[in-house]
């Protein structure tokens, strides 16, 4: 097998590692490309190509994350990970860990960790690398990596909900949710929402978003039912899709361009969090991006038919 073939075989794994460390599709793709350039120019053939490439992409991702954190501190409004529809890497033996680590909630918990803790957690707890491989990847001793892993695991466990819904429950609740918002059924929607449900949006200052958040079942239900039933009037559509391994949707304009994504967290039989990403910088990998401001203006006009 040539180097090129070996790399392409491992590309899904490398992207999956980088995306979880960085929370950004574009940055993860750049990290994978930089990994290929380093591998291509390396004179020696590593004993384990998988271990070598995983270490390289991890180190690149750690460096990118350290510089990205400065940018994220100056980010306009809430920062959410770039949405992803499918994970390119599959491993039946670790399917539960891979799915859980892909959710918006898990990626935001990872944001609380230091870059090293994040990398160690991703390699060890998500992808099941052994500690010698983790230590080699992050350039620390095995003992230090065990401490980093324990600390990261503690932070992640502290932030995780105790009784998360199973896949079937999430899907059933999401189907009822999208029916209710499409029909403008405020009462039906309110029944599906947790009392303290929170809706937050990431527009990056470049698209309309609920940057301050909307909190409470009554408030969230009123906001959603004031917007979504109007979308059909402007030929926009809500396309239910799995987003980051959880129920969600893509909002498209009349030309099929992406306006935003929606991801839903379910807990205790109710929708707990609704996260919307409308920043055009975070949607380009999903297809052509719409002018979200123009769509918002159309929605407002459609809501005032006699204006």
UniProtKB/TrEMBL annotation:
GO MF terms, alphabetically ordered: DNA binding; sigma factor activity
Transcription in keyword set: yes
Residue ranges constituting the RNA polymerase sigma factor 70 region 4 type domain according to the UniProt record: 105-156
InterPro entries: ECF_Sigma-70_Domain, NTF2-like_dom_sf, RNA_pol_sigma-70_dom, RNA_pol_sigma-70_ECF, RNA_pol_sigma70_r2, RNA_pol_sigma70_r4_t2, RNA_pol_sigma_r2, RNA_pol_sigma_r3/r4-like
The keyword Transcription is assigned to this record: yes
Quaternary organization: Interacts transiently with the RNA polymerase catalytic core formed by RpoA, RpoB, RpoC and RpoZ (2 alpha, 1 beta, 1 beta' and 1 omega subunit) to form the RNA polymerase holoenzyme that can initiate transcription.
Protein name stated in the entry: RNA polymerase sigma-70 factor (ECF subfamily)
